[in-house]
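Quick one, C-alpha cells below:
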C-alpha cells in the first residue's frame, strides 16, 4: 500500500494500492494540514503531523483507533517524521532540532541534536525492514520487471501487478509492452 497526505480542498490521510487503484480516505475529519507521515509496519499504524493543529496523531491502516499522541505549541513547526521502537523522531523547522517523542504517551519529548537545513528524517535499522518475499514485479528471465517493458507497479496484493509506460508511450493490447 501507498499512504499519503493531502491538504488541498479537503484535508485527509489516504491510502491506495501501489498502482494508484483502490484509493481510500482513512482520515478526513478534524484534520487541517497533515504533512509528515510515518508508518509502523509491524503494528499497522499511520502517524502524521498536522502543522495547523500543532498535533501528532495516529490511526490504524483502516482509519480506526485514532488518537492524539501530542498536541502542543512545543511541536509547532514539525517536518519529517519517522517511527522506531517506542519513539517518533521529527525535525523542528524553527530551530532545526531533532525531536524524540514517546509515541505511547507523548509526554516524553526530548531535543536530541541540531542540524542545519534539516527537513526530513529517516531511521535505517535492520529491524525496521520487513522481509521481502517473492512478488509480481520480480525481474523475469528477459530482465523485465514483472514482464513489463517499462514500469511494473504492485497492485492489490504482492502477487498482482499493473504495467505502465514512461511518458510518451502507450500500453500495448497485451498489457505489458509499451509503444
Amino acid at each position: 500500500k501507498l499512504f499519503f497526505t493531502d491538504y488541498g480542498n479537503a484535508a485527509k490521510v489516504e491510502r491506495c494500492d501501489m498502482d494508484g487503484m483502490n484509493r481510500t480516505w482513512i482520515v478526513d475529519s478534524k484534520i487541517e494540514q497533515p504533512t509528515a507521515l510515518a508508518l509502523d509496519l509491524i503494528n499497522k499504524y499511520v502517524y502524521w503531523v498536522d502543522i495547523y493543529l500543532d498535533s501528532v496523531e495516529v490511526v490504524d491502516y483502516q482509519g480506526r483507533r485514532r488518537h492524539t499522541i501530542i498536541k502542543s505549541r512545543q511541536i509547532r513547526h514539525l517536518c519529517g517524521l519517522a517511527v522506531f521502537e517506542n519513539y517518533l523522531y521529527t525535525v523542528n523547522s524553527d530551530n532545526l532540532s531533532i525531536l524524540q517523542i514517546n509515541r505511547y504517551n507523548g509526554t516524553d519529548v526530548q531535543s536530541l541534536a541540531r542540524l542545519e537545513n534539516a527537513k526530513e528524517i529517516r531511521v535505517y535499522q535492520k529491524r525496521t525492514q520487513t522481509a521481502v518475499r517473492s512478488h509480481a514485479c520480480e525481474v523475469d528471465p528477459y530482465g523485465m520487471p514483472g514482464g513489463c517493458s517499462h514500469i511494473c507497479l504492485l497492485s492489490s496484493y504482492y502477487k498482482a501487478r499493473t504495467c505502465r509506460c514512461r511518458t510518451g508511450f502507450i500500453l500495448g493490447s497485451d498489457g505489458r509492452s509499451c509503444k
